[in-house]
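Task: sequence design from structure.
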């Protein structure tokens, strides 16, 4: 195995080096050995960061052109003679190159900080900036600081887990000082070493945390295949930004395959502009939540010109699951609630509010809902908005006390157009037991329209 690995390293070196560059080569076991090197060679093959085959090794060449640069702990190493050794590589940076072990036990705080700093340096140089986490669990005691730059990417291989060992602490902090765009996160899981309560409002997976208003905010960013385990929020504008009233819209965002599990104590997604002004648009596809929080909606979107989404599923939720507030146009497809519970009077599973809002929901399903109150609760609450809903299906509603469910509620000038199919129970009824579509069926603000009308 060792001879094969050496052969592969030499092959890579030959491919990356100009003809005649191999004057002398040293084989070393670790980055520490490279720093201690005094031998007059021009190339070093290092088998690992700490020891052989730990993922942190590579090929380094002597670089006089980088004499002004400091040791970054991964791509540029300075030896005891002050010589600069530059890692030969193409493609993304690897956190293992900077000493991250990813074993779920070792403290990777310093190693990850070096990797994120190197990512920021690539951004500053104008080169493609991508950082990759390999399979494993990476334990940190401090937030990872995202570059204040455009176009960076952080990706996971095999869904690595970022573990925060410090309570009430963000996993990744993005604190832009001006308008930023084009950044991306993909295939990462966020967890804390202990379950975070609703009081731990800093326990956010990815926190937008500017220290001032940025009128144009951040835009055209993508988050995909992200999972939240047991924090306060998964993707959110930081509560400090909201309380300060900063004008900071998050827009032009595309979120796909976002998952929030039941130990999350707050929202999975809280985006928009909670200060002044508005945020143009956001698209959220393939969202899944398994959450029992009753203290905060799972999705909170505010002051956006356009909200779109497909395939939203809320499982085991208690109380309202999403709130779309003061957004002008909303288009959702396939919204499903399963095994949820409504436990307070006037509670609802979801709400759209805004005096000038218009929207459409194509496919609205409630399965196995438990009504645990003596009052009236609602499936969809339309507050001052005009919403078209096609294909409503409700089944297996359990009313454990004297409470009752009204599937649709328009109020404060809200209007609901009901199109396509609608049924309560497998028989396609308009009511069953104390559960009704609305009360009365021709309630003010609800009207039946022909299927297919837009």
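Answer:
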């Amino acid at each position: 195995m060792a001879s094969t690995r050496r052969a592969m390293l030499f092959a890579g070196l030959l491919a990356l080096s100009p003809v005649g560059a191999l004057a002398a080569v040293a084989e070393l076991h670790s980055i520490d050995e490279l720093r201690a090197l005094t031998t007059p060679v021009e190339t070093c093959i290092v088998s690992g960061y700490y020891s052989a085959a730990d993922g942190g090794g590579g090929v380094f060449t002597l670089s006089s052109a980088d004499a002004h640069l400091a040791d970054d702990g991964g791509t540029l190493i300075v030896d005891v003679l002050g010589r600069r050794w530059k890692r030969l590589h193409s493609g993304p940076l690897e956190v293992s190159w900077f000493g991250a072990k990813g074993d779920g036990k070792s403290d990777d705080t310093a190693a990850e900080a070096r990797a994120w700093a190197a990512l920021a340096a690539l951004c500053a140089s104008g080169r493609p900036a991508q950082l990759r986490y390999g399979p494993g669990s990476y334990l940190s005691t401090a937030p990872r600081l995202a570059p204040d730059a455009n176009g960076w990417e952080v990706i996971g291989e095999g869904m690595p887990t970022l573990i925060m060992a410090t309570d009430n602490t963000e996993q990744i902090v993005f604190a832009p000082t001006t308008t930023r765009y084009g950044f991306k996160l993909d295939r990462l899981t966020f967890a804390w070493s202990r379950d975070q309560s609703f009081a731990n409002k800093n326990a956010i997976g990815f926190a937008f945390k500017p220290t001032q208003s940025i009128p144009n905010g951040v835009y055209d960013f993508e988050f995909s295949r992200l999972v939240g385990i047991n924090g306060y929020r998964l993707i959110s504008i930081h509560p400090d930004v909201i309380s300060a009233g900063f004008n900071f819209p998050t827009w032009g965002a595309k979120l796909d395959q976002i998952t929030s599990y039941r130990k999350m104590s707050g929202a999975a997604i809280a985006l928009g502009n909670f200060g002044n002004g508005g945020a143009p648009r956001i698209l959220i596809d393939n969202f899944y939540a398994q959450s029992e929080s009753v203290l905060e909606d799972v999705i909170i979107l505010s002051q956006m010109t356009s909200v779109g989404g497909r395939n939203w599923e809320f499982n085991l939720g208690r109380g309202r699951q999403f709130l779309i507030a003061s957004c002008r146009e909303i288009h959702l497809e396939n919204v499903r609630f399963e095994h949820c519970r409504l436990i307070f009077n006037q509670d609802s599973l979801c709400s759209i509010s805004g005096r000038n809002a218009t929207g459409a929901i194509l496919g609205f399903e409630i399965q196995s809902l438990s009504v645990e109150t003596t009052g009236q609760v609602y499936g969809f609450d339309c507050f001052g908005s005009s919403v078209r809903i096609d294909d409503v299906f409700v089944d297996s509603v359990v009313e454990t006390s004297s409470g009752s469910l009204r599937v649709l509620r328009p109020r404060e000038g809200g209007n609901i157009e009901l199109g396509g199919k609608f049924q309560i129970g497998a028989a396609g009824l308009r009511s069953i037991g104390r559960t009704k579509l609305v009360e009365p069926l021709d309630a003010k603000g609800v009207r039946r329209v022909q299927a297919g009308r837009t």
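The chain has two domains: 1-90, 91-448.
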